[in-house]
Amino acid sequence: FRLYKQMGEPLYCETMRLIVAAWEGKPDSFRASVLKGMMHFVELYHGEFNEERLLRALRNIHPVDIYRIGQDDPAKLRGWKKYVFPIYTAYNGKCRKDALPMKF
């Protein structure tokens, strides 16, 4: 509920729609770490990311892995940024074409 109040209804609803589309409502996809990472990713890159590319990338990573990678914190990021990082790297993959710049 705090994320909903903080980010606003439109962003929250868009994020939830993407989460459900990517992971088909699996309970692990609604963990706080996944919600934080996804909401901030959508906020930072709104209008820039390709939805189909994002959904393909998310389907290839388990929601718990977002939490685990964030906890390992390979990029030495703080707070919510450590949960955006695995989503960002999954989206960009190895492809430099149409890669998103790092904004966090």
Structural description of this entry:
Pfam families: DUF6551. The chain is mainly alpha-helical. The chain has one domain. It is built from 6 helices and no strands.
Radius of gyration: 13 Å
The total beta strand count reads 0
Count of distinct structural domains: 1
Order of helices and strands: HHHHHH
Through-space gap between termini: 24 Å
Helicity range = 55-70%
Give the oligomeric state of the chains in this entry, treating copies of one chain as homo and distinct chains as hetero.
single chain
So what's the overall shape?
Answer: globular
Strand content: under 5%
Largest beta-sheet details = none
User: So how many helices?
Assistant: 6
Average pLDDT taken over every residue? 95
Secondary-structure-based class equals mainly alpha
Poorly predicted spans = none
InterPro entries: DUF6551 (IPR046681)
